[in-house]
Design goal:
The chain is mainly alpha-helical. The chain is 75% helix and 6% strand. The longest helix has 57 residues.
Length: 401
């Protein structure tokens, strides 16, 4: 049981601030609503919840939201009332965070709020999801729009998982190489150095260099680790600034090989999102606004906001996006064709498929290049250390003979 601070309204028009105990926020909202109160807000009464700045709401996990939407589509198509559907979905959810959020949505809808408004007010769901629901409510095709969003979720999830899984093996090799260097520096170099000093073996310059470098790294290891921690903390602090995130994006997209790949990934992510919103019936200006809030690149988001302003002024979408300087010419040409033929949503879907496939091909090529380089680097490090430490043994063997 936890304590919650509640702001309530009565039928007489009074506004009350009260403290109640409940097992969850959703259960407390349901209880207060059954008692005839209008529930304005329910907040946990906890020292941990007191922080400087606005409270951060935990987002719903992508996989949990996908399962929820699949079940929501099925219940909606069956003709079940919305309140009953939300009640069943909340009860069946395995995620405590999602269950509490759906309970909150149910109470807001019962109080007269639209479904999209209820999801948006909670702040735990993606902006594109709330915009999609809003488009479905306006057009009266909520079932169709939800089905399109589920398809979008599956496609985007599959694309991101392919992108990340392709990076696992190179990352593993990089960690292995770092661990190997630490092992050599921590255990191997000190023991060989002590052995050669005790035997008074003359050491060649290569061995002296390796031993000196290893001992220097070991002495400076604490400072290197401290510097790395400070660097990570500094980057995390800078990441909260929009200007710093945009500058970091500019650096990322200018990298020799990876920059082009990341740009295509961002374009595919945006085009897929915009296509889904337009197919759901959302106007182009509102769709651009929701897309800007949904993409992961702040540099692209800034360009989309500028494009939205240009579209509001009467410019075509392709020309507005071209002014941002972010999009490849092929994507802009295909979008222009879609505008001209009146088939923009389907053309955007084709653009998304093209760039997703292009990213997969480029990523496979990049991984095929990186893997041999990482393996060769590990072999070179091992061979270099072996040669450096076995040369004095050869000199010792020659002295014995």
């Amino acid at each position: 049981m936890g304590e919650y601070v509640c702001r309530l309204g009565t039928e007489a028009g009074q506004v009350l601030n009260q403290t109640h105990e409940a097992s969850s926020e959703g259960e407390l909202r349901a209880r207060l609503a059954s008692q005839g109160y209008f529930v304005f807000s329910v907040k946990p009464k906890s020292i941990l919840s007191m922080r400087i700045g606005p409270p951060r709401s935990s987002k719903i996990k992508e996989d949990d939201l996908l399962i929820f939407n699949q079940q929501f589509v099925t219940l909606s198509k069956s003709g079940l009332p919305l309140q009953k559907s939300l009640e069943m979905l909340a009860r069946q959810s395995r995620s405590e965070s999602l269950r509490a959020a759906v309970e909150d949505v149910k109470e807001r809808v019962r109080g007269g709020a639209l479904l999209s408004e209820a999801f948006d007010a909670i702040g735990k769901f993606p902006k594109i999801y709330c915009s999609t629901l809003r488009a479905g409510e306006r057009s009266g095709t909520l079932d169709k729009v939800l089905t399109q969003y589920v398809t979008y979720q599956k496609t985007a999830r599959s694309f991101r998982k392919k992108f990340l899984s392709a990076l696992i093996y190179p990352a593993f090799l990089l960690v292995f190489l770092a661990g190997l260097i630490v092992l050599i520096d921590t255990f191997i170099i000190p023991r060989f150095s002590q052995l050669y000093n005790e035997l008074q073996v003359p050491m060649p310059p290569l061995t002296v260099f390796v031993i000196s470098l290893g001992l220097a790294i070991k002495r400076m290891g604490v400072f290197v680790l401290l510097g790395f921690v400070l660097l990570v903390m500094g980057l995390r602090a800078a990441g909260k600034s929009q200007a710093a995130r945009i500058q970091w994006d500019k650096i990322k997209f200018q990298l020799p090989v990876a920059g082009r790949l990341l740009q295509k990934f961002s374009v595919a992510e945006f085009v897929r999102t915009l296509s889904t919103l337009l197919q759901g019936g959302l106007p182009i200006v509102a769709a651009l606004q929701s897309s800007a809030a949904s993409v992961s690149s702040p540099l692209l988001a800034r360009g989309l906001e500028q494009a939205r302003v240009e579209v509001m002024g009467g410019r075509p979408l392709s020309e507005s996006l071209r002014m941002s300087g972010f999009f490849p010419p092929m994507a802009l040409d295909m979008i222009e064709v879609g505008e001209t033929t009146g088939a923009l949503p389907s053309m955007l879907e084709s653009v998304a498929e093209f760039f997703e496939e292009d990213v997969n091909i480029d990523l496979s090529t990049l991984v095929a290049m990186v893997d041999p380089i990482m393996i060769a680097s590990i072999a070179i490090v091992v061979a270099f250390v072996l040669v450096a430490f076995y040369l004095p043994l050869f000199s010792l063997a020659a002295q014995v003979h």
